[in-house]
From TrEMBL:
GO MF annotation: an example: cyclic-guanylate-specific phosphodiesterase activity
Keywords assigned by UniProt, alphabetized: c-di-GMP, Kinase, Phosphoprotein, Transferase
Highest taxon above the source species: Bacteria
Natural source organism: Methylotuvimicrobium buryatense
Residue stretches making up the EAL domain: 354-608
Entry keyword annotation includes Nucleotide-binding: no
PROSITE patterns in the record: EAL, RESPONSE_REGULATORY
Descriptive protein name: cyclic-guanylate-specific phosphodiesterase
InterPro entries the UniProt entry points to: CheY-like_superfamily (IPR011006), Cyclic-di-GMP_PDE-like (IPR050706), EAL_dom (IPR001633), EAL_sf (IPR035919), GAF (IPR003018), GAF-like_dom_sf (IPR029016), GGDEF_dom (IPR000160), Nucleotide_cyclase (IPR029787)
One annotated GO biological process: phosphorelay signal transduction system
Classification via PANTHER family: CYCLIC DI-GMP PHOSPHODIESTERASE PDEF, OXYGEN SENSOR PROTEIN DOSP
Keyword Metal-binding: no
Length: 760
């Protein structure tokens, strides 16, 4: 109450001033609270309390809108009312105003009327609270004195609520930032696809194991799935994810307690502390390889991922960060003869060279450093050149002539293989057309396709565009694919091959025998010929296993109506063997190394060839092997009179070559040869040339091994030195009779099978 001596106008002015000062104090205190508070609920409670203590209101409460029902739910209050009472009042059904000026005048709203009656309130107002521009609740206040909410007061209260809304925006942004940081931290330390630790977390744990643990030696193993990236590139994301999770499950089944991580798309790392010996790590590598090398089957399609494991050790191979890097380096080794490799110091230098090569390689095309060499392919029946394989070479300004083994994998890794591959195709087709325009005999041009080229680009259109541009007819182009390309996505590859084949372009299956292909796939492929890998050709005259593989491949191909070309033919013996099993074509250094275009053109102009296959009258060829040349001379004098054609040598190694070249029906070998025993040599001859009759002739009578060889059918007869001429000639004559009978039976069997096939 104002005193009677004070004018009424002054009393009102003083009351309004005091009221506004309280509101300014309320605004100031709420702003201080906003600075300190990071939790919305704390802010709501504090704002209500300050409204009572500093603002002079009877009650204050904050309600938030329920997103499902639209009702206003009290969350904080102060004064003569509690949140519980507010919730029970009108069952919590309060209105929220969005027109700020109309919030004054509580008598207009039923909820305020009821609250006024219950709590003795004279005026109240509700101000909308916003979050990111959207009304999410209201700040509700009421007073027991009239005329409280004038324009000036309402503007101050609007400022209070705007500050609360601003604070909520700040808190929300901070929450989002914190959540983003947490999410970012998760992605930094964990792989999102598998949930395994990432490289960053693995490095921290490796560092801790090396320095803070009790381990004397820490071993890091990196599993490199060498074909995973190519497979993932071909598949839908969900299918790729299924493959990855299958691999993780397999890895966990082998090593449930060993710390492991996914350190990049195709590599996993494992941590071993104080293994009992290096053999433990190696045995573990074999176990890992065994489970990961098995095909992953998704939707009926099998995928092979070619795991290889690199191993490095702390402290032997450097500091923790270096140990991981060195294990990765070992896992990236091109070695295919084993399933794992330990790091050694020279690898690091090789890695730096690879990096420098990659840099130079990226400039090679614009510098015109790539060239093509061409290796002739020959028809064994005529001896003539009937084809050429285009082979990419890199003549670097910085490194000279770089081996394809060093730069082709780099082209695959850095993605340049598609561009360079298309250049190779165009250049090879252009040159072939040029040869034809110059009047040289037409021949087929074989061009290799890589996995990335075939799966990553539009090969049918690229090939079609190349032929149109160069003017080469389709029948003079042959595309070579490896078995591994087919197996990545067999159905898709086969469809693409048929699409290309329909244009008249041929296919050859390269490096046959080195992959995982099956006859079921081979029968579906539109290939004209199979290329036998040079690794099988190299030792086929002396290694029974290689000889058996080559013979089987030729037989299988012929049964499917395919021709066979053998790569890497370097000796007359290899040529003779291949002719003997009716292989149609060869290529290799025996005739010519890969040549630059000008040298190959000269080869064509000169009409160079090898002697054609001779259809000769059968003769009795006898091979004599003895380390004493006088023995061979004496035997030759005796046996030549009987009409035998004698081939002799003092070397087992040369004996293998002569067997392949001359295909003798009978071979006689001394038992005690320097390189290997006669029985061991004849044992191999039996495996490679099963029809050849084998005889031991020796002056030594250590009979155990000879008797064993005779009993196992590896030796037909054992004869001693000195010999009786007539008896020796009789034995050899009988041996040739047996050989010729076998040959006749084999011929009749083939003829019978051919007639049966025709009748069917």
């Amino acid at each position: 109450m104002a005193s009677s001596d004070t004018p009424i106008g002054e009393t009102h002015t003083k009351t309004e001033l005091e009221r506004r000062n309280r509101l300014y104090t309320m605004l100031s205190h709420i702003n201080r609270c906003i600075i300190r508070t990071k939790d919305p609920q704390e802010l709501y409670v504090a704002a209500c309390r300050i409204a009572i203590e500093s603002g002079g209101f009877a009650i204050a409460w904050i309600g938030l809108i329920d997103s499902e029902t639209g009702s206003l739910i009290p969350v904080a209050s102060a004064g003569n009312v509690t949140v519980t009472q507010l919730k029970s009042l009108n069952e919590g059904k309060f209105d929220v105003l969005s027109n700020d000026k109309e919030t004054a005048g509580g008598s207009r709203f039923s909820s305020w009327i009821e609250m006024s009656e219950q709590l003795g309130l004279l005026e109240g107002a509700s101000f909308p609270i916003r979050l990111e521009g959207k009304t999410v609740g209201s700040f509700n206040i009421a007073a027991k004195e009239p005329g409280f909410f004038r324009d000036a007061e309402i503007n101050l209260l609007l400022e209070v609520v705007d500050d609360i809304s601003f604070a909520l925006d700040i808190i929300r942004r901070e929450e989002k930032r914190t959540a983003a940081e947490s999410k970012m931290r998760y992605f930094v330390y964990y792989d999102s696809q598998t949930g395994l630790p990432s490289r960053a977390l693995f490095e921290e744990r490796l560092n801790e194991s090396c320095y803070n643990g009790n381990a004397h030696q820490v071993v890091v193993m990196v599993v490199n799935l060498r074909r995973l990236q190519i497979v993932l590139h071909l598949l839908e994301p969900n299918t790729g994810l299924a493959i990855i999770r299958t691999l993780v499950d397999r890895l966990e089944s082998v090593l449930p307690a060993v710390p492991r991580a996914r350190i990049d798309e195709a590599k996993f790392a494992l941590l071993l502390q104080d293994p009992e010996g290096l053999h433990v790590a190696e045995e573990l590598a074999w176990e890992i390889h065994k489970v990961l090398a098995e095909a992953v089957e998704i939707d009926g399609q099998e995928y092979y991922l070619d795991p290889f494991i690199g191993i490095a050790r702390f402290p032997l191979d450097g500091e923790p960060a270096e140990v991981l890097k060195h294990a990765i380096l070992a896992a990236s080794s091109p070695d295919t003869d084993t399933i794992c490799r330990f790091f050694f110091a020279d690898m690091d230098e090789g890695s730096r060279r690879q990096l420098n090569l990659d840099t130079a390689l990226r400039r090679a095309l614009e510098r015109n450093e790539f060239i093509l060499h061409y290796q002739p392919q020959l028809d064994l029946s005529t001896g003539r050149i009937i084809g050429a394989e285009a082979l990419l070479r890199w003549q670097s300004r910085d490194y000279g002539l770089v081996s394809p083994l060093n730069f082709i994998p780099l082209l695959e890794e850095n993605g340049m293989i598609n561009t360079i591959g298309e250049w190779v195709l165009q250049e090879a087709c252009r040159l072939n057309r040029k040869w034809q325009d110059e009047g040289l005999p037409p021949l087929r041009m074989a061009v290799n396709l890589s996995a990335r080229q075939f799966h990553g680009g539009d090969i049918p259109n690229i090939v079609k565009r190349t032929l149109e541009k160069t003017g080469l007819e389709p029948q003079w182009l042959e595309l070579e694919l490896t078995e591994s390309i087919v197996l990545m996505d067999a159905d898709k590859v086969i469809r693409t091959m048929h699409e290309i084949s329909a244009e008249g372009i041929g296919f050859a299956l390269d490096d046959f025998g080195t992959g995982y292909s099956s006859l079921s796939y081979l029968q579906r492929l539109p290939v004209a010929r199979i290329k036998i890998d040079k690794s099988f050709v190299a030792n086929l005259t002396s290694n029974p296993s290689d000889a058996a593989i080559v013979r089987a491949v030729v037989g299988m191909a012929h049964s499917l109506g395919l021709k066979v070309i053998a790569e890497g033919v370097e000796t007359e013996g290899q040529l003779g063997f291949l002719r003997g099993i009716n292989c149609e074509e060869i290529q290799g250094y025996l005739f010519s190394r890969p040549l630059p275009a000008d040298d190959f053109t000269l080869l064509l102009r000169e009409g160079r060839s090898i002697p054609p296959k001779q259809i000769e009258k059968p003769e009795r060829v006898l091979l004599l092997i003895d380390d004493e040349s006088n023995i061979i001379s004496a035997l030759t004098r005796v046996l030549r009179r009987k009409g035998f054609r004698i081939v002799g040598t003092t070397s087992i190694k040369e004996g293998f070559e002569l067997m392949a070249i001359h295909q003798p029906g009978v071979v006689i070998c001394d038992q005690r040869m320097p390189e290997m025993t006669g029985t061991e040599f004849l044992r191999r001859i039996k495996d490679i040339y099963p029809d050849t009759i084998r005889i031991v002739l020796s002056g030594y009578t250590e009979l155990n091994s000879v008797i064993d060889a005779v009993n196992h059918g590896e030796v037909y007869k054992f004869l001693t030195k000195p010999w009786e001429d007539e008896a020796l000639c009789q034995v050899i004559g009988d041996a040739f009779n047996i050989y010729e009978l076998r040959q006749e039976n084999r011929y009749l069997s083939r003829k019978l099978n051919t007639n049966r096939a025709r009748s069917e």
